[in-house]
Amino acid sequence: MSRFYAILGQVSPDFDGCELPPPDPVISRAVSYIEANCRRAITIDELSALCNLSRSHLFSRFKQVTGCTPIEYKHRAMVQRAQRLLIDEPSLSIEEVSERTGFESAAYFRRVFHAVTGLPPRDYRKIERGML
Predict the structure, then answer these.
(1) CA-CA distance, 31 to 35, in Å (whole number)?
(2) Which CATH number does the domain 74-128 belong to among 1.10.1740.10, 1.20.1090.10, 1.10.10.60, 1.10.540.10?
(3) What backbone torsions phi and psi does residue 70 show, to the nearest 5 degrees?
(4) What stretches of the chain show up as alpha helix (H) in DSSP?
(5) pLDDT tens digits, one per residue of 33-82
(6) Rounded to the nearest 5 degrees, what angle is found at the Cα of 127, between the Cα atoms of 129 and 110?
(7) What is the C-alpha radius of gyration for the chain, rounded to an integer number of angstroms?
(8) What's the pTM value of the predicted model, to 2 decimals?
(9) What are the backbone angles phi and psi of residue 18, rounded to the nearest 5°?
(10) pLDDT for 78-96, tens place per residue?
């Protein structure tokens, strides 16, 4: 578990708006599950069952511990993966990055990416490659 928090501490700057969760073993299970499965659809019911909490209790406790909702956390995890792909694999199109990170469409990916980072994916890639 300490390794998980060490890794999360390294990536937490990418999760603006979400605080590093304190050691809450119940919510840690949900966070780990989201991180491992962010490329696919995850429901609140899945997380509730995993954590043995009601939907409403999970939702409020997750937000209290992390500072964001489970879907916001999932989006940020997906965007973080997309950021790495945009930098590490410049030959991939935005559509391919969108698909590889689990977004249902490239348009939705662009919208979420912009909401999380403040930049469209194409501009993010250019800035990180020193082209803008």
Answers:
(1) 6
(2) 1.10.10.60
(3) -55, -40
(4) 2-11, 25-37, 44-51, 55-66, 70-88, 94-100, 106-117, 121-128
(5) 999 999 999 999 999 999 999 999 999 999 999 999 999 999 999 999 99
(6) 110
(7) 15
(8) 0.77
(9) -115, 125
(10) 999 999 999 999 999 999 9
